[in-house]
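Re: weekly structure request thread

Next one in the queue (136 aa):
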Amino acid sequence: MKIYRDPVSIKALAEQMPATDLQHMVQSRLSSLLQRDMDNTALLQAVMVMEENDATADLERAVGFPILRNRWNGLSRDQEHFTPSWDALDEHPDWYELTFILGDEGEGIVVFVPQGLSGPLNDLCRTCALEQRRAQ
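Done, posted below.
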């Protein structure tokens, strides 16, 4: 997993990568923050990019809370009234983008998960994305 924790490295991620879908998604996220306020990039505490050999446990250690269970009530996806811990899930052609808001000022973490990964996190993202599409 690649983790970018400061505005300079996050901006560098958007600018230095070869032209990929991921680069465009990071640029888009930064642009939306900058449109609101030049200082808003400081609200983005980290961008995390999961890679092929990363497990959900790796991501949970990096963010500091459970991903497959709701971080406030502990419910898992097989329990009634489960909702994921993320505040937003965006589905892109090859990626899922998970946004976690961590504080009252709007500071947060964005996690990019490749759709091709196998495992429970990708299953949860796929299920939730499908539910979102059906609800639209």
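The first strand starts at residue 2 and ends at 4. The CA atoms of residues 4 and 47 lie 5 Å apart.
Next request, please.
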